[in-house]
Amino acid sequence: MRNATIVAPQPEAVEAGAEVLERGGNAIDAALACAFVQGVVDPQMAGIGGFGSMHVYMPKKGVHEILEFYARAPLKAAPDMWLDKIKHQSRDGFGYVLEGNISDIGYLAVCTPGSLKGYETALRDYGTFDWADLIKPAIRPARNGFMIRNHMHWYWAKDQSNDGFANTLDKLRFSETGRRTYFHDDGTLKNVGDLLVNKDMAETLERIARSGGSDIFYHGELAEQIADDFKTHGGLIDRQDLARYELSKVEPVWGDYRDNRIATSPPPGSGFPMLELLHIMEQFDVGSLQHGSAEHVRILFEAMKRMTIDKDAHMGDPAYVDVPYEKLLSKEHAKAHARAIKAGEIANVSRLDGSQRDTTHISVIDKDGNAVAMTHTLGSPSGAITDGLGFMYNGTMSRFNPLPGKPGSIAPGKRRPSSAAPTIVFKGDEPSIVIGAPGGSYIAPAVAQCLMNMIDFDMSVLEAVSAPRIVGVSNTIDICNRIRHSVEDDLRAQGYQVARSPQTYAFAAVHAIKIEGGISKGAADPQRDGMAISVA
């Protein structure tokens, strides 16, 4: 490799990671420095109250694995705990709406966080830097402040009531810390360009840095503060949840697409649905289609619906349920779906009677060929912040199915299904693409489309992440505002429901690196505020 590259949705975080690469750190060091900063400068997307997974490839050490630090349901949770509270499922299938939004906002919404233990484990097993040294770049913007960016403010102010979930604005107001941090003295929301200071978070990060690891959060004084706060506010998480939290390491699942070998996350991650979509699309001559044409969109949509039906039927924590992803990834299964699409059969996605979510991503490759694709998140923010700690907890209990007996049903200690698909593509034995995205149920379709853009349409990495996208995770075709209206008219004439997004760049936010001839080039999805930096 002749250079290193890092790309993520937050410029401040990318800069922190690039500085680590310049100082001789490897891809894992850079990803972790970036991640800590992301938790400060995009605090509803990620942070130490969240969870995620890191896809790690280190050829000289013979390492290729997924570090899973997913959130776990509280040990006091029960499969039927909310059976009488069910209202409906969101249209995109991301979560379930309950009466009073009790699984979406507040302390009952929180699953046991895994991010800090994930970061510590990644540094210990793969990294080279000092723990405190990696955290230091995140402390500075927390203490001194950073400018509120466009996408952050858009997300805060976005009306999500159509899906039935609580608005982020209400979550920002939920705690005293939130009201003090995110609003002016007169109660109005801080605006783009305003300085956001979070000294409580700075002090928490300093305590973690001094402690030398994550034990302070899971066993020590922070654990005591967290457990006491949840007890006071009627939450389910206690000292036992934190002390017994465990992460895992697993091998990636593999697929192939037109002579490219693709490694991605196994269940409960959503790499396998992304691979299934590619396997279906491989049965079509995608490159001969006009990109964004009615026929291209129709085939994509029908393939995405079939992927979604399989995911809805089977996705869950494999420690609790059997997820037959090997069968779902078989070429025979893909060919059967493709035959149905070619025959004009229209698939139906059913939802429990009755969008894009809150995540971030990092893609990195260093000069030694070490690669990281890391997707971490709050799932959705809960609004809950322990007084004095500064960080917001995840709100991912809403992702569990409140009906017992389903693959994604609630169970004590169970990992919630994740939409993340951190992916590394190989051409022969060498990585050629490092890719992933935030965006809830839209991640798998978006990542797959960007891979097809590079492989089938021979786009550059920037063209690939910027090209118009669609998603099909319900019975409506969601199209971005750059899909031509004539295409929309054609699809409607064929009997399809079509929803046009007002966003120019819509549906997840893919951040990717493409490697050609030993040179890596990165691209940040224009939907968000990120950037790519290459280091010679």
Describe the protein's architecture and organization:
With 536 residues, the protein is α+β, with helices and mostly antiparallel strands. Helices cover 35% and strands 19% of the residues. It folds into 2 domains: 4-249 and 357-399, no CATH class; 251-355 and 424-526, Serum Albumin, Chain A, Domain 1 (Orthogonal Bundle), CATH 1.10.246.130. Strand 16, helix 18 and strand 17 (497-500) form a beta-alpha-beta unit. Helix 2 runs antiparallel to helix 3, helix 2 packs parallel to helix 4 and helix 12 crosses helix 15. The protein is built from 18 helices and 20 strands. It has a 7-stranded antiparallel beta sheet with strand order 8-3-2-12-11-1-20, with helices on one face. The protein has helices spanning 11-22, 27-41, 115-126, 131-144, 150-157, 168-174, 176-182, 199-211, 215-218, 221-232, 239-243, 271-281, 294-314, 325-328, 331-342, 443-455, 461-466, 485-493, and strands at 4-8, 51-58, 63-69, 86-89, 96-98, 146-147, 195-196, 248-250, 253-257, 260-264, 358-365, 371-379, 423-427, 430-436, 470-471, 476-479, 497-500, 511-516, 519-524, 531-535. One of its GO terms (biological process) is glutathione catabolic process. Its EC number is 2.3.2.2, 3.4.19.13. It comes from Rhizobium leguminosarum. L-glutamate binds at residues 418-419, 440. Belongs to the gamma-glutamyltransferase family.
Briefly say what this structure is.
The protein is an alpha+beta fold and 536 residues long.
Q: What is the domain total for the residues?
A: 2
**DSSP helix fraction:** 25-40%
Kindly report the spatial arrangement of strands forming the biggest sheet.
8-3-2-12-11-1-20
Arithmetic mean of pLDDT: 95
Helix/strand-derived class? Answer: alpha+beta
Strand content: 15-25%
Total count of helical runs of at least 4 residues: 18
**pLDDT under 50 segments (min length 5)?**
none
> Quick one: biggest sheet?
7 strands, antiparallel
Radius of gyration, whole Å? 22 Å
User: Would you report the number of β strands?
Assistant: 20
